[in-house]
Design a protein that fits this description.
This protein has one helix at 32-38; strands at residues 2-6, 13-17, 25-29, 45-49, 53-57, 63-65, 73-75, 85-86, 92-96, 110-112, 128-129. The protein is mainly beta. It starts with a strand and ends in a 6-residue tail after the last strand. The structure holds zinc ion (2 copies).
Length: 135
């Protein structure tokens, strides 16, 4: 299967492909950092190996905010949509699930940091809940 993704302004575009995409890990993190980055209750991220990922456009435009400690953000400088990013080895990619252009047929597998979720965050749905990260 092949699923494309893009940012709001369309300058950043990417593609996920592979028969094993449906067994990918999809999670949401409800921590304060992810709330700030998304402006919402949680992020939603798909974790896939490099072989399942391809940039179509705009990979050189992506801005990375990397603070000394903790997680940062990767985003389109034009429209601020979250963008895919990889770890230092480049072997794993984190894909913003909300950026996918069509349904990938996956359910959320885990909810992280539910112990510190926003007071107004009343999420429900499938997936295991973790007070903090999974590690
Ligand atoms: Zn954009
Ligand atoms: Zn988080």
């Amino acid at each position: 299967m092949t699923v494309s993704g893009s940012c709001l302004c369309g300058q950043i575009r990417y593609e996920l492909h592979g028969d094993d995409l449906r067994s990918s890990f999809l999670y949401q993190c409800h921590c304060s950092r992810c709330r700030q980055v998304t402006g919402s209750a949680a992020n939603a991220v798909l974790v896939i190996p490099e072989r399942n990922f391809r940039w179509l456009a705009g990979d050189d435009l992506v801005k990375h905010y990397r603070p000394e400690s903790g997680s940062g953000a990767s985003f389109c400088p034009e429209c601020s949509s979250p963008a895919p990013f990889s770890d230092e080895s480049g072997r794993t990619y984190w894909i913003p699930a909300g950026g996918l252009d069509s349904d990938i047929g996956l359910k959320v597998g885990a909810h992280m940091f539910t112990g510190s979720k926003a007071g107004w965050d009343e999420f429900s749905g499938p997936g295991q809940c973790f007070d903090e990260g999974m590690s």
